[in-house]
């Protein structure tokens, strides 16, 4: 199976001013593409040559895992952003967030704090655990909750390449901007699947 860079559902300049075109040119166009290219090269002649991305993330190790998980993570992240994002979730997701965290504001505060305090590079995830309870988890580097039997719902990239061109070392400002772009329709569908 050949893995490909997914087509974004928005133009590179449409997330401005929250995320600049320049950042997307590097983050999506260079970093994400490099993970796709590396993964395709690494899986040739291995047991993962015909595996889906989910299978690669769940079962591989080393370079194949690192590149496969980064392809998965970045795709999951980019596909949940929208120039018309922000606002609030509805329906079952809104109810579950309120039940688990007390309110949407409390969820955002806890998720944002997780992103601001994750040391080094990695990802913050909203997941459903094996009991279908919502949790926030932090994963370093290419970490992905699929490896722990959890279902990803929302992720935020906190590698410096996600924000450095826009906010330099001000990760909290990037996190604040992130909430302006979250496409709750996508997140709700992931939660209800």
From TrEMBL:
GO terms for cellular component: cytoplasm. GO terms for molecular function: metal ion binding; superoxide dismutase activity. Mn(2+) binds at residues 27, 74, 157, 161. InterPro entries: Mn/Fe_SOD (IPR001189), Mn/Fe_SOD_BS (IPR019833), Mn/Fe_SOD_C (IPR019832), Mn/Fe_SOD_N (IPR019831), Mn/Fe_SOD_N_sf (IPR036324), SOD_C_sf (IPR036314). Pfam families: Sod_Fe_C, Sod_Fe_N. The keyword DNA repair does not apply. Residues 89-190 form the Manganese/iron superoxide dismutase C-terminal domain. Keywords: Iron, Metal-binding, Oxidoreductase. Residues 3-82 form the Manganese/iron superoxide dismutase N-terminal domain. It comes from the Bacteria. Its EC number is 1.15.1.1. It catalyses: 2 superoxide + 2 H(+) = H2O2 + O2. Belongs to the iron/manganese superoxide dismutase family. Destroys radicals which are normally produced within the cells and which are toxic to biological systems. This is Superoxide dismutase. It comes from Labilibaculum antarcticum.
